[in-house]
């Protein structure tokens, strides 16, 4: 359940949050809108940045037009990467919403990407919206399904979001990287895919219309391609943290080098991506 949302203030993030507020279950959430002011060399420069930050924060609150009892405006000084992670812990957020430039692999690290840093180190679900994307009303949500716990959490979250949305549809996708059809061999009907069967049962239980797809090939590329072909409004997938507890403060090398499924999808998907821990 998403009860506390942290918005790292940006235009795309604002648009995404405003769209999410059309979903009944999200309307009950408490929202923290965070504006970070980077440190400056002189007092004059610091004063100017604080004024600009305050104006940006006020503009965001006005644009979002949320219930005043459910929104908190927060202006903080520091490195945005560290501040977002710290505030997410302080407010115990169930979801972090951030804009993203969609930088690839090591480039994101070299260019000091805030979203990539938070993606690396936060244990909380993240909704990333590339700056070049147009945010659409959420009706069609695709979930990448496998047998992992994080995928099951992604499915549960998607169904919770969609159950009260009229004319909504969940797209259940299970990619098979090893599928090689022989001449004359027919692919398994996605509705009969054993991995998708429990997800189908859950969708029926929630009363959410569903569609099953089982694309073969490299999971990251096929998930992105299928999401674009089906005009998906939001893509949700599990992004498990594989680091031992003693290394939680260190980067995940798979994500750092762009080798993880979630890292590939966050860069190439043609729609907002919600990564579930």
State the distance separating the first and last CA atoms. Answer: 13 Å
Mean pLDDT: 85
H/E order of the elements?
Answer: EHEHEHEHHEEHEHEHEHHE
- The total of beta strands comes to 10
Level-2 CATH architecture of the largest domain:
3-Layer(aba) Sandwich
| Number of domains as seen in the coordinates | 2
Corresponding CATH superfamily of the largest domain: HUPs
Poorly predicted regions: 106-111, 181-186, 242-248, 251-258
Q: In this structure, how is the largest beta sheet organized?
A: 10 strands, mixed
How much of the polypeptide forms β-strand, as a percent range? 15-25%
Helices and strands, with pairings:
Elements: E1 4-8, H1 11-20, E2 30-37, H2 43-64, E3 71-77, H3 80-90, E4 95-100, H4 105-110, H5 114-121, E5 126-130, E6 140-144, H6 149-162, E7 169-173, H7 197-206, E8 209-213, H8 219-229, E9 234-238, H9 253-256, H10 261-268, E10 273-276
Parallel strand pairs: 1-2, 1-4, 2-3, 4-5, 6-7, 6-9, 7-8, 9-10
Antiparallel strand pairs: 5-10
How is this structure best summarized?
Helix content is 38%, strand content 20%. The chain is an alpha/beta fold. It has a 10-stranded mixed sheet, with helices on both faces.
């Amino acid at each position: 359940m998403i009860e506390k949302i942290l918005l790292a203030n940006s235009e795309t993030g604002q648009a995404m949050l405003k769209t999410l507020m059309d979903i009944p279950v999200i309307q009950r959430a408490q929202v923290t809108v965070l504006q970070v002011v980077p440190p400056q060399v002189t007092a004059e420069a610091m004063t100017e940045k604080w004024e600009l930050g305050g104006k940006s924060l006020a503009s965001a609150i006005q644009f979002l037009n949320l219930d005043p009892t459910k929104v908190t405006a927060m202006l903080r000084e520091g490195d945005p990467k560290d501040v977002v992670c710290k505030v997410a812990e302080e407010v115990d957020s169930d979801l972090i919403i951030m804009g993203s430039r969609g930088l690839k692999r090591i480039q994101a690290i070299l260019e000091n990407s805030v979203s990539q840093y938070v993606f690396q180190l936060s244990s909380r679900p993240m909704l990333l919206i590339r700056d070049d994307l147009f945010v659409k009303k959420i009706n069609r949500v695709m979930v990448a399904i496998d047998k992992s716990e994080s995928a099951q959490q992604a499915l549960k979250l998607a169904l919770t979001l969609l159950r009260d949305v009229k004319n909504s549809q969940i797209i259940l996708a299970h990619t098979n990287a090893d599928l090689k059809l022989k001449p004359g061999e027919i692919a398994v009907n996605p509705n009969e895919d054993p991995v998708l069967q429990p997800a189908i049962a859950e969708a029926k239980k929630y009363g959410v219309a569903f569609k099953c797809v089982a694309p073969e090939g490299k999971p990251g590329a096929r998930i992105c391609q299928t999401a674009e072909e089906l005009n998906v409004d939001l893509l949700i997938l599990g992004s498990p943290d594989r680091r031992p507890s003693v290394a939680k403060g260190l980067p995940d090398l798979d994500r750092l080098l762009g080798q993880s499924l979630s890292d590939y999808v966050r860069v190439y998907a043609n729609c907002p991506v919600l990564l579930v821990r």
